[in-house]
Amino acid sequence: MPSLWVDADACPKVAREIIVRAAERTATPTTFVANHQVPLPPSKWVKGLAVSHGFDAADDEIVTRLRDGDLLITSDLPLAMTAIERGAAVMTTRGEALDANNIRARVQMRDFMETLRSSGEHTGGPKGYSDTDRREFANALDRWLAKNA
């Protein structure tokens, strides 16, 4: 059975709640990994893993534990690319599937935007997490679990 791995450092609370409910409903082992303790309800299927504070410590821990066929939930594109290379499925908290066909272009765009920002250009940040994002994520997660869990 595949496991769910959540890059919890930047996971919106509403997405975390969706993940917990889905894990409980489908009896899917789920681990939230962060460099701090993530508040989670008591559960047989859901656990938190707090790693040491350090650059990419949570990402490194996730990569070490990921298995082929697991699902990683993250918006961290370099982490997503590494997970895809290791055979994991990847989804953002907005329900977007990241895979070998789209990850390189997404990483290149991220790097381009980072270059613009470092040159003083104001590019704005990500849009807020909307009800549509919540619904798209919940539906995409349910579809993945129905197919893979």
From TrEMBL:
Positions of transmembrane segments: none
InterPro entries reported in the protein's UniProt record: UPF0178
Coiled-coil intervals: none
Cleavable signal peptide: none
CDD domains linked: PIN_YqxD-like
Domain of life: Bacteria
Family, as annotated: Belongs to the UPF0178 family.
Protein name stated in the entry: UPF0178 protein FHR94_000946
Phylogenetic lineage: Bacteria, Pseudomonadati, Pseudomonadota, Gammaproteobacteria, Oceanospirillales
